């Protein structure tokens, strides 16, 4: 929040019954809520099953305003949020979220 105070986040982890996993409905609802409010949406995930769920959600939403951003979850979220905060468009935000090479220790 300190680096991207104007950016809205939604966490949609876990199954519908509170277990470990991924809920299509939770992700879809978050996307619908944000796009209905006029926001563009970058979707970041942590594991393969979440990737598959997001891909299913993408089949149901407007691809012009929603992007799947596979990459490092925490670092990608920070990079994406900061890029959005400084005025980056959805493509720039998605690219920032995916930029794995930014976070590799080259030492």
Could you characterize the architecture of this molecule?
This protein has four helices and two strands, in the order H-E-H-E-H-H. Strands 1-2 form a two-stranded parallel ribbon. It is globular.
Shape, please? globular
Number of helices: 4
Could you name the ranges where pLDDT drops below 50 across 5 or more consecutive residues?
Answer: none
Distance between the termini: 30 Å
Structural class: mainly alpha
Beta-sheet strand percentage?
Answer: 5-15%
Radius of gyration over alpha carbons? 14 Å
> Would you report the number of β strands?
2
The average pLDDT value, as a whole number, equals 91
Biggest beta-sheet profile = 2 strands, parallel
Strand order of the largest sheet: 1-2
**What's the order of the H and E elements?**
HEHEHH
What helical percentage do the residues reach? 40-55%
Quickly describe the structure.
The protein has 107 residues and is mainly alpha-helical. The protein has a two-stranded parallel sheet with strand order 1-2. Strand 1, helix 2 and strand 2 form a beta-alpha-beta unit.
